[in-house]
């Protein structure tokens, strides 16, 4: 769920800054599959789906040590569990 929260923050940032073209890169295939799934009942997932528009592209890359930005992404993901407790993750 940490990766989903990071994706949500990236989307919010892109909206806040009015970015025209955004590519969010994730090595969590599970997170991206969850966001692409039909019939998802968790509110947080549906909020993210509704906030994605045509200028945002979600991309999967294979995780590997030393890949550009990978270490920073790992650091941010480790900070996220404290945020998760503040958000309702239960199905509607």
From TrEMBL:
SUPFAM superfamilies: Ribonuclease H-like. GO terms for molecular function: nucleic acid binding; RNA-DNA hybrid ribonuclease activity. InterPro entries: RNaseH-like_sf, RNaseH_domain, RNaseH_sf. Signal peptide: none annotated. Residues 1-82 form the RNase H type-1 domain. PROSITE patterns: RNASE_H_1 (PS50879). This is RNase H type-1 domain-containing protein. It comes from Araneus ventricosus.
């Amino acid at each position: 769920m940490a990766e989903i929260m990071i994706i949500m923050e990236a989307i919010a940032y892109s909206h806040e800054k009015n970015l025209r073209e955004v590519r969010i890169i994730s090595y969590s295939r599970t997170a991206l599959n969850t966001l692409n799934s039909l019939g998802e009942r968790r509110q947080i997932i549906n909020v993210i789906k509704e906030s994605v528009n045509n200028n945002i592209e979600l991309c999967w890359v294979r995780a590997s040590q030393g890949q550009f930005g990978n270490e920073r992404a790992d650091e941010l993901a480790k900070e996220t569990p404290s945020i998760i407790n503040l958000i309702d993750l239960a199905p509607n």
